[in-house]
Structure formats: C-alpha cells, structure tokens
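Researcher: Go.
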Amino acid sequence: LTSTAAAFTSNGSGRQTTRTSLSETKADLQELANKLNPSVKYWDPLGVADARYWGLDETATIGWLRQSEVKHGRVAMAAFVGYCVQSNFVFPWALTTSGMPHPSTELSPPEQWDALPFVSKLQIILFVGFLEWYSELNDNGEPHYMKGGKPGKYPDFKGGIPHPVPLNLYDPFGFSKKRSEEAKARGLISEINNGRLAMLGIFGFLSEQTIPGSVPTLTGVVKPYAGEVMAPFSADFTL
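Model: Structure:
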C-alpha cells in the first residue's frame, strides 16, 4: 500500500556523515504516493496510516509500516529472482558432507525446499533470524526506525560482530555512500515499486502452483505443487 511508504528528508545536523531521517506525517506519505504511482496516488482503504498500532504515535506507526514494506519488498525481490534461477540451475557441488546433491531442477522451488534435509532448513531459518535480531539490536548509533531513523538501512557488521566480516549486508560495496541525495531519492522510488511488483510476482507463482489456472498467464509455465506453501516444515513433521 502507498500508505506504508514514507518520504526521506536530509537531517540538518552538523555531523560530517550524511544522515537521513524519516518524514513522519501523513502528508509526506501522500506526497510520496504521487511520485510512486501518479495514477493511483495515495490509496489507503484500510486506514493503516492512522491505525496507531499498540498505542504508538504517528511517528512510530509510520516508521514500523515503512520498515515492514521495505523489508518485505526486498525479501520478495530475492524470492522472485531465486525462484527463476533455481527453476533452471542448482549448484553442481554436494549439498551435505555425506555427498547429497542439491535438489534437481526437475522439482519446482517449493518441492526443492521440501527435499532439503531438516537441518539445512533449520540453518537457513536460524541465519535469517540472526539477521533480524542483529538489525533490531545494533543500530550503529542511528535512531531506531520507529524513532525517526531510516527504515531499510541495515546496520554495519564492523564493530558489531566479534570477528572480521568482509562485507556488510546493506550496501556491501559502498556504492550508496557515493550517490547524491537526489539519486538516493530516485532509488527509493524504484525500490518501493520494484518490491511491490516482486511481492505480486512471487505470490503469482505460488498461487498458480497451488491453484492451477488462478493466474492464466502462468498456466503451463510453473509446475503444480501439492504441498503447503505456508507450512515450511510440513514435509518434516506436523503438529
């Protein structure tokens, strides 16, 4: 939803490094919505911008919604690209020390997940959980995204992890630091729109797999799937 996006403005502090702070008003959401989609503009039928979740004020509510959209958009972009790649290519080396190969491309991506050993799935879930935990607890001295900080900016690993880490998760090659504020603003618009498109794309794949014919343009393109897409461990155990 457009209402979950918020504009960014430069923080006028005297620090040498450039910091970006969240514009936290509903008017800022409406302004950004016009840039994101001039045809739809501001569209918030559920009134989420005014929800005040958990009794939070407008600043915290918009910060939380903005962070959620950026995060889900990035995950969806990775999922969409990953779905396309692993439908056609898997690593040629062994998956486990016992010599077990990676699940074949004859399987659809959800079937490939089901074919993974339980320990492999657990490693992936725990790693993603660590990234989430680290992003919430290590802010690199920046305000939290619900307190005026910049949603979507992942903290650096340097100084936060007790051993050398060659690259950061956010901006690993430092390209963003060299960009102008105008370029960053354009990149923000592109990221939001691409993330929304990717969310529709990955759910289009999953919908067509589980309900054949539900997405006519994908009929015959993706393989049917009889498993539970919302139950990642259903192939291992049931409760």
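Model: The helical segments are 26-36, 58-86, 109-115, 118-137, 181-210.
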